[in-house]
Write a structure and sequence with these properties.
This protein has 14 helices and eight strands. The chain is α/β, with parallel strands linked by helices and about 325 residues long. Bound molecules: adenosine monophosphate (AMP).
């Protein structure tokens, strides 16, 4: 399953990506997370990226593409991936298409998590995330606050406020999204890969919709099969419920259906195994037919003596 999650900053695509990781056991690849890890590690790459990140601008394509290329080369990417926050502009999308074409693993779906721009500001400025990277739970002080302020409900670690989630930077990030990232909607629509999920409401409801879209787009056969199976299960249950009254009549039907198909296939095999009964014709043609099927006499001798001799002698 190879998916790009599209959406403005604060649309909740990161949250949906985490739920998808749990459900489908494929890795999430977030360029934002990868960049923040580089910044936290104080690497050269992190130092280069930090200024752009702090000012709400995009980090250079060169840096991001290098990072994604390395990430896609890791073994776990073979089972698929959920790209979150990448691509962020048309050149990145084109480079991604080329990379995936080289790997023979084209993208299957670009899923847009659609949220009104007015909602986004509160979502971003109110966002807090668990500092324990193994947990990664996300809260919002306006909409989904933790039980104790500043503490993660799940693991008790301190909550963090991203440095670029302040109002000024958020405004710039939303502008950058409109100018550079939103054109990807048309890009993927033109490829027939775009689907849209409303990103407002309960997280579980949004997720249900996201999964429905994925099942319909990427796993249509699996979803059709599960519906057929559900239908068959319902019929079997209904038939069972009806049986007690007609227990005597229901039993003979399956028994009659099976013998009709099997004996036809078994009878020709049995007489051949009892060759010693048929002295001349049966022994030789049968042996020849197995070893030298290409030779001239084989087809005639096989068909005639086998069919005629067996039933007569057996009877
Ligand atoms: P995110 O966590 O996805 O909101 O990303 C945080 C910041 O990282 C963005 O505001 C950008 O500065 C940078 N960033 C993340 N992904 C990309 C990308 N694909 N291209 C360029 N910059 C990125």
């Amino acid at each position: 399953m190879r998916i790009v999650l599209l959406g403005a900053p604060g649309s909740g695509k990161g949250t949906q990506a985490k739920l998808l990781v749990e459900k489908y056991r494929i890795p999430q690849m977030s360029t934002g997370d990868l960049l923040r890890a580089e910044v936290a590690a104080g690497s050269e790459l992190g130092k280069k990226a930090k200024a752009s990140m702090d000012s709400g601008q995009l980090v250079s394509d060169e840096i991001v593409l290098g990072m994604i290329q390395n990430r896609l080369a890791k073994p776990d990417a073979k089972s698929g991936f959920i790209l979150d926050g990448f691509p962020r502009n048309i050149p990145q999308a084109q480079s991604l298409d080329s990379m995936l074409a080289r790997l023979g693993q084209p993208l299957q779906l670009a899923l847009l998590v659609d949220v009104d721009s007015q909602v986004l500001m509160k979502r971003l400025t109110g966002r807090r995330s668990c500092g324990n990277t193994g947990c990664g739970a996300i809260y919002n002080i306006y909409f989904t606050p933790p039980k104790s302020p500043g503490k993660c409900d799940k693991c008790g670690s301190g909550l963090q406020h991203r440095s670029d989630d302040n109002e000024d930077t958020v405004r710039k990030r939303l502008n950058v999204y409109e100018l550079q990232t939103a054109p990807l909607i048309s890009y993927y629509r033109a490829q027939g890969k775009l689907r849209t999920a409303k990103g407002v409401g309960a997280i579980a409801d949004i997720f249900r919709n996201v999964v429905d879209i994925i099942e319909a787009q990427i796993r249509p056969l699996a979803s059709v099969m599960s519906k057929i199976e559900a239908g068959q299960a319902a019929k079997v249950a209904a038939a069972k419920a009806a049986r007690p009254a007609r227990a005597g009549k229901a039993a003979p039907k399956p028994v009659a259906a099976k013998p009709a198909a099997k004996p036809v296939a078994k009878t020709p095999a049995k007489p051949v195994a009892r060759k010693p009964v048929a002295k001349k014709p049966v022994k030789k043609p049968a042996a020849k037919a197995k070893k030298k099927p290409v030779k001239k006499a084989a087809p005639k001798k096989k068909a005639k003596p086998a069919k005629k001799a067996k039933p007569k002698k057996a009877k």
